[in-house]
Amino acid sequence: MADRLTMPRTAMATVSVRAPSVDIYAPQWRNFVFVAPFLFFFTTLLIFPLLWGMWLSFHKADTFSSGDFVGLGNYVRLFHDKVFLQSVWNTFYFVLLTVPTLALIGLFLALCLNRRTRTAAVLRTLFFSSSVLSVTIVTLIWRIVFIPNVGLLSTIYGWFGATAPAFISDPSLAMIGIAIATVWWCIGLPMMLFLSALQQIPQDVYEAAALDNANRWQTLRSITLPSIKRTFILVIIIQIVLQFQLFGQAWLMTRGGPNNLTKPIVLYIYDTAFRRWDLGMGAAASEVLFILILIAAMAQYLVTRNKADQT
Amino acid sequence: MSAPAISIKGRAFGDRVLLALVILLSIAMIAPVLWVIGLSLKDNAELMADPNSVFRLPYTLRNYFNTIGTSSVFLWVLNSIIVSGGLTLGTLVLSSLAGYGFARLNFPGKNILFVIVLFGLAVPEQAVLVARHQIFSILKFHNTYHGLILPGLSASFGVFLMTQYFKAIPKELDEAAMLDNASRFRTFWKVLLPLTVPAQATLGIFTFLGAWNDYLWPLISATRKDMYTLTVGMASTQTNFAQSEGIGFLMAQAVFAGAPILIVYLFFQKYIVTAVSGAAVR
Q1: Interface test with B, best of A38, A39, A126, A270 (most B CBs within 10 A)
Q2: I need a labelling partner for A265 at 20 to 30 A (CA). Which of A10, A74, A93, B87 fits?
Q3: With 90 as the cut, is the pLDDT of residue A177 above it?
Q4: pLDDT tens-digit series, residues A186-217
Q5: Buried-exposed string A208-224: b where 16+ CB fall within 10 A, e elsewhere
């Protein structure tokens, strides 16, 4: 012990013998001080509002008071509200439009840009750059692309004497327009996740394949794709969780219209709770969203944990 | 990083198709931005007469002078800096302390508390939005800086990240310090914290970027124009698209708001990409 105490501090790091019988790992109440500040904010601003929100969803509440207990009344009203059911459908439709597109384009870009050239590095920077912009700027850009007469799309169509599809105002195209803007905004993350998965594939597997005269398609199918299967599932789940929370794009591009056809669940919550001030009903809708996202989050947890088991 | 080393034979055609696709996607990425920059440099009347006038002279900086002349933009930038900076600082302090506590110290109920904190990762903002808004109404926190900062401090991601990071540091380091009779806080402050700088950078960038781009909470909490963050303020000016100050003006505003963050991205690209993808996988 005495020897260790006189050693310089840096050298001690390399000593692998655990110090005997020093009680620094014993449970002590005063150690709680370190986690207490965070737990204070965590409890008051996350756990309490979560429980309070559940409680609100059983009440007819407005801004400052929670009024009468209505039991499951809000939920019954919710599931009889055509606009809410429409918003649930819209959200699923949007997820269906964006998530596979993001995963496939992201994978394609990662496969193409996974090399050490300068061009590939510049293109990786380019494809991720839109991810750092705020939703306000992204929607501003895409509204000006889609806007009739002066927009980029109508200008391009104009060169060929054609009329551009009305991506914002046409009921059957509005959600697709929002999805295009979203894919443009979010493509960076799936690409980067796939890239880091590709870089973890050992190089010698490819060398072995080359010796066997495997062509590129065979290499892709029997080596690359199986190695990143888990990442693919992970990307899908992460994107489902993210895209389920669609709000800004829909609110800023179409205000949920035409005819509520682009109104997602979060926009329904926003409308109900903060524009009609029906907090109870808004809280009920947010519980439904919470359960949907929780299911996806659990799936993500299971996928991540399986990897930990394997390695 | 390198491409699989397989035979060159018969690759030319396939390579060209792939190259064409990548170029097409790159154009789709960059064309809208160039279009917006082009519009921002044009006089509105000329633009309305012929949209193709974007492609020819004359260009003007008038829209930018108008943007800067609108004093609100600077106020919103200032608000965004205060909110994002405050939240980042708070998150770093709280997460480092808690991360050290969970990774290194023992206290009654530690394991169950950590599981609850992990559960916080799965709670989306929207699930607590309504209740949070009501609580903040009662406390009169709306339209204040702390009203905009506080909700972000409850996010568990930072604690999770810092706990992982502290766990990866060899225990011998702090055991040595504690044997030297350093207090727990001194050990944390002098020995371990300096080693966590990379994690602090990742967490700091992630938090700052998230707060800077946040839209939903500032939209419902900051309802007074002078308390808008840049994101909400910009959104508020684009409501009357066609009839407002003109497309060129709006585009100049978009460039004005987007350019700084893109420049920061170009310089800190590596950290930003690590921060964003690390947060997604967690």
Answers
A1: A38
A2: B87
A3: yes
A4: 999 999 999 988 988 888 888 888 888 778 78
A5: ebeeeebebeebeeebb
What are the residue ranges spanned by the domains of chain B?
11-70+238-257, 71-234
Angle of helix B269-281 versus helix A118-129 axis, rounded to 10: 60
3-state secondary structure of A43: helix
Q: Is B192 helix (H, G, I), strand (E, B) or coil?
A: helix
Looking at the DSSP bridge assignments, the partners of residue A61 are A66
Q: Which of these, A271, A267, A278, A125, lies nearest to A191 by C-alpha position? A: A125
Other Cβ atoms closer than 10 A to A118: 7
Tokens 């003006």 found at = B249
A149 vs B contacts (CB less than 8 Å) = 51
> Which among A155, A158, A184 has the least Cβ separation from residue B29?
A184
For A200, which residue in chain B has the nearest alpha carbon?
A: B1
ipTM of the complex: 0.84
Q: Global pTM?
A: 0.85
Q: Distance (Å, rounded) from C-alpha B209 to C-alpha B76?
A: 16
Is there a contact between B277 and A196 if contact means CB atoms under 8 Å apart?
yes
Cβ contacts of A134 within 8 Å, gap of 6 or more: B212, B213, B215, B230, B231, B234, B257, B258, B261
What is the topology classification, in CATH, of domain B71-234?
Answer: MetI-like fold (1.10.3720)
> What are the structural domains, with CATH classification, of chain A?
75-310 (1.10.3720.10)
